[in-house]
Every structure is written in C-alpha cells, then in structure tokens.
Amino acid sequence: MVCYGGGEYRRPVVSGNWKLNPMTSGEAKETLKLLAANQRALEESGKDIPEVILFPPYPFIPLASELLEGTTVAIGGQDCSLHDKGAFTGEVSVSQLASLGCNHLLVGHSERRTLFDETDVEVNKKVHLGLNAGLRVMICIGETEDEFNVNLADAVNEIQVKKALAGVTAAQMEDITIAYEPVWAIGTGKVCDAPTAQEVHSAVRRVLDELYPNTGVAGRTRILYGGSVTPESIDVIMREPDVDGVLVGGASLMADKFSRIIDFSSPLLVRSPPRVLVAKEVVSCRDTLDESPIWDPRDGFFPPKHLL
Ligand code: PGA
C-alpha cells in the first residue's frame, strides 16, 4: 500500500457551507461581521492559518464579499447551472458567480445528488464549467449509511471520483479539491471516526494515483472531510495525515464555532519555510548546530572581525 500522508505539504483548507441558511440577510450580516472580526484577529496573530472558503447562499454572496473584505476568506458558489445563460428561470451560472468575485465552486454535494437528482454526469459537467470559468472546484463525494455498512464506501467513492473527474487534466487538478462527506455523517451529529476517514482518504488518493500516474497529483490534491465537524471534533480529525481540511455545514453558521474550527490545532500548521541563516546567526548558535558559519552578503562584511 502506498502511503501519501506524510509526503507532500498540502496547505489545510477549512470551508463552510451555509446551505439554505440563514433565513434573512440581517442574520447573515451579523454572522459575517463576527466572522470577519474573528478572522482579522486570527490573521493578525501571526499564526499559520488554513485557507478559508465560505459558500453562502447566492443572494448573500455580495454581502459576504463586502463584509469579509480585507480578510483572506474566499467566497464560492454552492452549485451552478448547467447552462451559461438564457431562459432557465431560477438558475445561476458560473460566469455570474465569477463576476461577483467568487473564486470557488462547490459541486456534487450529496443534498444536490439525493434531493435534486443530480447525476455523476451532471457533476462532471459542472466541474468543467467551473474550471473553464476560472473557478477552483470542490467536488463532494460520499457513500450512504447502507453502502458504508456493507463495505461499499471505497467502491462508491471511487466511482464518484472517476466520473466527476472525467476529462479533467493533471494540470487542471491544481484547481480541484475533493471533499469526502459520508452521507450518514451530514447533519446527523455522527462524525466518521478519524481512522475510518483516514482510510477512505487514503483510498481516494490511490484512485487519484491511478487516474494521474507519475504526475504528483495524488500527493498534491487536498482531500477534505465533511460531516458533523465541530470545534470538539476538529483537532482529532485534522491529525490524520490524509485529511487536509474540512467542509463544515451547521457549525459554520456560528461565527465563533467556525473560527475555532479555522483555528484548529495541528502540527500541520506550524511548518514555516526554512530560512537561510546569515553567518552571524550561525555563529551565535554554533554550539547547538555544530556548523561552520557561511558568509552571506547580508552580513555586510567578511569575515566579521570579532568572529575571527
Ligand atoms: P454538517 O454538513 O457539518 O452540518 O454535517 C456538512 C456538509 O453538508 O457539508
């Protein structure tokens, strides 16, 4: 078995799917104001933070963009029409989303698949529409409870991944994120236990390796977990090496809860890029590092007299 978990560094993503909530723009405004304040504080704290994406209902997209301006939170559409324009009452196209400042598109959520009969073929068309409009696409996959109970999770997820990605090139995979959302864990309070999620994520990565061999795609693609994620469960699930983030429903509607999820504690976020030390710094910690100083133009003079 190939284990990808520890190989590539994949920046974690925390995303929030508001679905058909809240009921009014006034409520949305209150939540967004709090979220923006929390996010600013988090960003100013100097901590490494994950990428954050919010998927509000279409009418609240401009409000979300306005109130989250100045933060790094990106906005996305929860779905899109299969059509570009025309006589399709009630639909919203990818170009309309992009023109509102959306950078992301969610496709294939299980609620769209089950409640609105969305097929794998339609999911695939939406993936291409999103990519062609310059959006980054998050594809949701996941098995039902019955499928899970008879050990069909891997088979179902494999089919969904392969059908959703039909015709997507390795280069385009840079703009794809997969969200594994077991249907039985969505909105039910039943969180998939972390080792099980890890197994599924690792299986999905193997499918990506099969689809895009020798390209590095499997190691680079971020695979998120979704389903009843809360501030209480986030730290545990994020410890799994193949879980690269989360897609949060209910808990993303409460700014403080969502911010706590964004501020999850993980060894993944303390990695900062290595820094080249100047000679003075190397010398000053030579006892610890047991290294010789390397002159750098930033030292300003060579060799530093007092170090000779
Ligand atoms: P939940 O929803 O967090 O409320 O379970 C997750 C989702 O549907 O994306």
Automatic annotation (TrEMBL):
UniProt xrefs under SUPFAM superfamilies: Triosephosphate isomerase (TIM) (SSF51351)
Pathway assigned in UniProt: Carbohydrate degradation; glycolysis; D-glyceraldehyde 3-phosphate from glycerone phosphate: step 1/1; Carbohydrate biosynthesis
PROSITE patterns hit by this protein: TIM_1, TIM_2
GO cellular component: cytosol
Keyword Iron: no
Enzyme Commission (EC) number: 5.3.1.1
Membership in a protein family: Belongs to the triosephosphate isomerase family.
Enzyme class (EC, first level): isomerase
Keyword NAD: no
Subunit details: Homodimer.
Biological process, per Gene Ontology: gluconeogenesis; glyceraldehyde-3-phosphate biosynthetic process; glycerol catabolic process; glycolytic process
Pfam families, sorted: TIM (PF00121)
Organism: Cymbomonas tetramitiformis
GO molecular function: triose-phosphate isomerase activity
Domain of life: Eukaryota
Full protein name: triose-phosphate isomerase
Keyword terms, alphabetized: Cytoplasm, Gluconeogenesis, Glycolysis, Isomerase
